[in-house]
Each structure stands twice: as C-alpha cells, then as structure tokens.
Amino acid sequence: MRNPAAAARPRKPSLFKKKETALAPAHRKPLKQRLVENWQLYLLLLIPVVITIVYKYGPMYGIQIAFRDFTASRGIWGSEWVGFEWFERFFSSPNCGRMIVNTVLISLYSLLWSFPVPIILALALNQLRFHKLKRVVQTVLYAPHFISTMIICGMLRIFLSPSGGLINLLLGTSIDFINQSSMFRTIYIASGIWQEAGWGTIIYLATLSSVDTSLYEAAKVDGASVFQRILHIDLPALVPMAVLQLILSASNLMNVGFEKIYLLQTDLNKPVSDTIAVYVYEQGILGAEYSYSTAIGLFNTAVNIVLLIVVSRIAKKASDVQFV
Q1: Is the confidence at residue 19, as pLDDT, over 50?
Q2: Mean pLDDT score across all residues of the chain
C-alpha cells in the first residue's frame, strides 16, 4: 500500500522537467504573425501612410529645383544643375540680414508674449464655478479665431486709422500707427494674441479636465488656497502639453505668418515687416524666380528642423518630457 504521509508531502519539481514557457509579448512576435492577427488595424493604418507618402513625400522630388536653373519649358530634369548658386545669391543679397532678423524677432516676440496667455486663460477659466458665465467667456474668447486674417487686417486698418480711427478717437490723437515702423511688431503680436489666445485655451482646458478631482478635494481638506492648488496640481498637469506646444511653436520659428504681414505691410514699415515669407512670395510668384524662391524656402525648412531637434533636447533635459 501507498504511504499516506508520503502522498501528502509535496513533490519536488523534477530537474529534467521542461519549464513551461510563458506567452511571448506582442512586440516579440514575428511580423508575419502580427500582420495575420491584426490585419484589420494594419489595413486602416495603410490608408494614411499611403496618403502621406503620395501627398507629402512624393512632391519632395521637386526640391531639386533649388539646385537647378529651372525653366518650365525644359522641366525639372532638363534644367541645368547650378549647385548652391541660389543660396549664395540669397546670402549675398543686401536685404538678407534684415529679413532674417525681422523674421526671428517677430517670431520670438510672438512666442514670448503669446505662449503663456492661453495657459493663464485656461487656469482662470478652470476656476470658474458659474458654468453659464464660463460658457459665455469661452465663446467670447474663441470667436476671433473664426474671423479670417483679411478681415482682421481690415479691422486693424480701420481702428488704427489716423482720421476717425477708434484708437485715435480714444487717445485724442491722429497717429498713423500702421505706417510707423516702431509700432508694427506691437500691432502684429497684439492682434495675434487677441485672435488665437482663446482658441489655444481649448487644449489646456481639455488637459485640466483629465485631472483627478480627488486631488482638489484632498488639497482643500489640507487647507490649500486656490493659488496653491493651481501651483501644485494644475501647473504640473499642464507641463507635458505646454512643452509639446513650445516644441511645435519653436519648430515654426522661421515661418512667420505671411498673410497678415503682407496685408499690413507698407513702404514706410517695410524695414521691420520685410520677412523671408514675404520675400519668397515676391520672388517666386510675382517675379517667377522659382529656383531662387525654392532655395530660400529650403533654407527656412532646414533651420526649422534644427530648431525642432534642439528645443526637443532642451525640453527633455529640463522637464523629462520628449516628443521628438
């Protein structure tokens, strides 16, 4: 007979018994197996990939006209290869330094003044407890975003007109603000904040809406003031999104809005409003200098890519947040 005590004792695992293998993680499965198991998802992914390749990467072959003396009759491949001739022409032009400085200064000042405004508005709106008032304020702040740039520029010219303009009537003066070089950047940046700040708060309000409400309740129990709750709960929650917005804004540092500058530009304010975007339009569209304007645009894009990488690295070291 079998000893009951021996049967009750737990058996030692055999050294020669094969270990049971756990299921392999999804990322370690062969690509073929993953394609078979999730073919529906990959099929959906294929659509935007194809569209991106066709409409984004496909036309990039035209960048080579920046290194050719392009003429429409010969086509891209039939045009003569000139190397860096157009880049040398741009950097040796008398207005090159002025255009680069104007572009950088307008972009930096816009980023410096307009970047924190949506964050401040989102923090303020998040503290409103009267929902009807909150909706009204949000609508008033969002509305300018839906006004076209051409109408905005028309409104600015009317409000800042030296004869009968609203600003001059309030100040009791007759100053021609638009034609003053010293006022152009202020007008551009202030109108941009008024037009886009309210729309930018949507992203930050959406981020704040995901914050756990128990954190606020615990802070109130501990006696934290409104300012302390904003400082220790709201701001840390906004840091990743703020860093992402900063990276995206810095990557477009050289792409100052062409339309508003072109519509507000005059002969008198041209020394501070002459930017690279306007120059590319004048040379490429008005002057039919396609190779020259493409070379300038390629230089602009290269600078933006470098800025994107640099700002991303700085943001990673400063806040441990990285998106690129």
Answers
A1: no
A2: 84
The residue type at 46: L
Q: Read off φ and ψ for residue 61, nearest 5 degrees.
A: -65, -20
Q: What is the pLDDT of residues 157-170, one digit of tens each?
A: 999 988 888 888 88
What contacts 144, CB < 8 A, 6 or more positions away?
A: 152, 194, 195, 196, 198
pTM value is 0.77
Dihedral of CA atoms 193, 198, 203, 206 in degrees, nearest 10, equals: 150
Q: Which residues have C-beta within 8 Å of that of residue 167, sequence separation ≥ 6?
A: 159, 160, 177
Q: How far is CA 169 from CA 79, 173, 175, 188, in A?
A: 58, 7, 10, 21
Q: Specify whether the CB–CB gap between 294 and 65 falls below 8 A.
A: yes
Tokens 């002025």, located at residue: 98
Query: What average pLDDT score do residues 2-18 get?
Result: 49
What are 230's two structure tokens? 């904003």
Average pLDDT estimate for 2-22: 49
**Residue 79 near residue 68 (C-beta atoms within 8 A):** yes
Q: What is the maximum alpha-carbon separation in the chain?
A: 117
Q: CA-to-CA distance for 193 and 200, rounded, in angstroms?
A: 10
Backbone angles phi, psi at 231, to 5 degrees: -70, -35
pLDDT, residue 11, reads: 56
Contact assessment for residue 204 and residue 115, using Cβ atoms and an 8 Å cutoff:
no
Enumerate the β-bridge partners of residue 69: 80
299 and 87 Cβ atoms separated by less than 8 Å: yes
Q: Which helix (H) or strand (E) holds 80?
A: strand 80-81
Q: CA end-to-end span of the chain, whole Å? A: 72
Backbone angles phi, psi at 81, to 5 degrees: -80, 125
Tens digit of pLDDT for each residue in 60-115?
888 888 898 888 888 888 888 888 889 999 999 888 889 999 999 998 898 889 89
Q: In this structure, is the dihedral angle defined by the CA atoms of residues 42, 46, 52 and 53, taken in order, positive or negative?
A: positive
